[in-house]
Amino acid sequence: MELDDEESRERRKREEQEELKEMERAWKRMKIGFGLFGVGGILFSFWAIYYFGKPALDEQGNEIVDEFSSLPLVQQYIARTFKSLNHFQRFIQEPSSDKLLPDPLQAPYIQPPYTLVLEVKDLLIHPDWTYKTGWRFKKRPGVDVFLRECSKYFEIVIYTAEQGMTVFPLLDALDPSGYIMYRLVRDSTHFVGGHHVKNLDNLNRDLKRVVVVDWDKNSTKMHPGNTFSIPRWSGNDDDTTLFDLISFLSVLGSSEVDDVREVLQYYNQFKEPITQFRENQRKLSEQMQADELEKNSKQTPIVKNWSRGLMKR
């Protein structure tokens, strides 16, 4: 019995020693890995400074004098490297162009009086994934009618933070009639505070006549006065938002409003602008019916008196 206990203690001791040795080996491998990573980082930094910091050359291979040429050699390379990094940062954060849309159409072509800027994801279509079918994209109920009716008053522009390689094929299938005039994707947005923001200042349109319909206020935070917010669509088939939006935009377009921001500012004070528009429509309809009844009631005695006059002998 004592012999078995002694063997057990020896075995545990050997196992503990093996664990300690394995921990030491693991720590040693980790230190080597960190060392190699550090050396690699230093070498990469030197390469980056050399590659991005070297002066540009002309067609004959001569160095082109720039604003850093008068500095000491090391400072020249470092300064040019930082300039290149700032350029890449601006490339990521700022739109690819300061003028995202071409100039408005001139006669004899017809330029719609207003511009309608639409998000596509979860506003017109919704991505849906299942094990059986994989990725599919559902059309929001009423989207075909919506595009057709809005094209009567608006120049329709898709402006989204999605990649073009994803969006363009979807829009080709969504809009075979070509109601959408322009498509702007991620490289046309500003990257601010972790969000891709749509900057309407680069749209090359009069902002008094630009309406943005979106569900994400972060993406339109530079121009909240031009935004009409609607609920984000989650793929439900009983959604009627686009039909209500048709009514709102048709009224706005046919009213020939000079500055749409005044109308949008009124509705933006409500939590659900589209619901408030429906309520206003209901009140207007009731008022029109009441006015019609009042008008008819005033006309009725005149008719009766006229009839009595004809019947007098």
TrEMBL record:
Function comment: Essential component of the TIM23 complex, a complex that mediates the translocation of transit peptide-containing proteins across the mitochondrial inner membrane.
UniProt-listed Pfam families: NIF
Main subcellular localisation: mitochondrion
Cell location: Mitochondrion inner membrane
KW Transmembrane (keyword) present: yes
Subunit structure: Component of the TIM23 complex at least composed of Tim23, Tim17 (Tim17a1, Tim17a2 or Tim17b1) and a Tim50.
GO cellular component term, pick one: TIM23 mitochondrial import inner membrane translocase complex
Family (UniProt): Belongs to the TIM50 family.
InterPro entries the UniProt entry points to: FCP1_dom, HAD-like_sf, HAD_sf, TIM50
Lineage of origin: Eukaryota, Metazoa, Ecdysozoa, Arthropoda, Hexapoda
Keywords of this entry: Membrane, Mitochondrion, Mitochondrion inner membrane, Protein transport, Transit peptide, Translocation, Transmembrane, Transmembrane helix, Transport
Protein name according to UniProt: Mitochondrial import inner membrane translocase subunit TIM50
Tagged with keyword Transit peptide: yes
Residue spans crossing the bilayer: 32-53
FCP1 homology domain location: 109-252
Example GO biological process: protein transport
Top-level taxonomic group: Eukaryota
Membrane topology of this protein: Single-pass membrane protein
